[in-house]
Amino acid sequence: MFDAASSSDDQAKVVGATNGHEPSSSIELPAKVEPHQARGWRFWAMFISLCITSLLSALDATIVSTVLPSIVADIKSESLYVWALNAFFLSMTTIQPLYGQTANIFGRRWLIIAAIVLFAIGSGICGGANSTAMFIAGRVILGAGGGGINVMIDMVVCDLVPQRERGKYMGLVFAVFSIGTTLGPLLGGVFAQSVSWRWAFYINLPVVAVALPLIIIFLRVNYDRETHILRKLGRIDYVGNFLLTASVISVLIAIISADTVHPWGSWRTIVPIVIGVLGHIAFIIHQGIPKLAPEPTVPLHLFRARSAAAAFGLTFVHGILQYWLVYFIPLYLQSVKRYSPQYAGVAFLPSVLITIPFAIISGGFISAANRYRPPQLVGIGLLVIGFGILTLLDRNSSTGEWVGYQIVSAAGAGLLLTCTLPAIQAPVEEKYVATATGTWGFLRSYGSIWGVSIPSAIFNARVNQMLHIVQDEGIRNTLSNGAAYEHGTAKFINAIENIGIQSSVIEVYTAGLRLVWQVGIGFAGLGLIFALLVQEIPMLQQLETNEFGYEGKKGGGKNDTEKAVAPADLSS
């Protein structure tokens, strides 16, 4: 750990290295941008509306995990179910860097409004879908809206709250987000069993009807009103966004379809991966040449500081592991324990009840102690342990075991929710917060897709290896080539009349899940390495700029609605 003096020196060095300026022992702050603000009703009305919006996006990210079998059966999309699952994440991931860049050009308010509108449109299309193509199109639009909601909420909070105070507010945002991601499977099970899977999407519309007016009324923040729209459009990094989007889509199409639509060794899998890797290389080269990208989508200087680069890596791994758990613990509960979708959602509640308070605890600790490394190290350590003990689960595991194992991994995931972004923002100037936050959101979402696709590929491969123990050719054919996940329900397994064959099918699912958890230990170990490389850099106690703060406060003055209650002390 670092003492205050050495940490201050480290901060000066990293800021200098990151932004191309000479290190400085002091930071000159603009006048009238005050620390430790007493938050008034306007701030809290805006903040609550942002939290409601965050809940929407989080619910939609995971609610499909328990309604997917019902969707597949209803709209006859067996061969394309994997796209119904991943279209949301694919769209959400590729759009976030664009939001990060254009937020500095067009401001925060209109982008988050546009994201909410897209989300509502996508929800309506998914709820009314009567074909696979229509459902996937709706999921793509939902992802574009959800990705914007996620990154813009983080950005707005960072615009209005100093670095050191952000932890507690981001803790509340992520707590709400965690409620959504963990309640998603529960609500999905309720809708699938009691009403209709379509309500998993229709439910978003009345919530949007509440959240959108609140955002329009209360989210009044500064942005550039003087520059002509054509000049603003000219600042967008079109080539960079195209290269990044195309390369990400190419790679993800390959890994999503591998072992489900095409074998891993097929040219249809290998060629998109190669194209995607080359596209990533071209994107990096393009972003590093100022003449080609004067305002890059992902400025490479964000990665020059070892600490920030390691924090980005930890963010990516955390995104992988979080969705690894969200999608495969419910599969265990439904396939091995043979719980109904509704009861499986209830059985997943320990993750909700643990993730939320640990996210808040992490954020509060960061604000109080001005340190983000302890929750990082404890959080990733708990995930290593959590994945390790999940390998012990089988059909005979008691309720206490599968609840207790969830608690360990959920505590680790919760701690990490609020402590990666501060480590990324601490070394950079406030003017780079938008692009840094957009990049952070992109990597977190990119990780979430890998967090579904990697364990799915591992699970499917292991199931194919184990199917020989099932003495029924029809069932073997049903579960082979990536179909085991969609059939991992109590309804399917309980319908197998022969007890011996039913037992062997459960054993196949158990073996597939055990390998999934074992590989997860390795990814958690990689996250631990990244966490060890992160440096402790003191966070600023007041904003350096109010460029995107409340309207009427750009230069400070009489119209300020939030009042400072204490002076800053940057030496602490």
TrEMBL record:
This is Major facilitator superfamily (MFS) profile domain-containing protein. Belongs to the major facilitator superfamily. InterPro entries: MFS, MFS_dom, MFS_trans_sf. GO terms for cellular component: plasma membrane. Keywords: Glycoprotein, Membrane, Transmembrane, Transmembrane helix, Transport. The chain crosses the membrane at residues 43-68, 80-99, 111-130, 136-157, 169-193, 199-219, 239-258, 270-289, 310-333, 345-365, 377-393, 515-534. Residues 1-26, 551-572 are annotated as: Disordered. It is found in: Membrane. The lineage of its organism: Eukaryota, Fungi, Dikarya, Ascomycota, Pezizomycotina. The keyword Phosphoprotein does not apply. It is a multi-pass membrane protein. It comes from Emergomyces pasteurianus Ep9510.
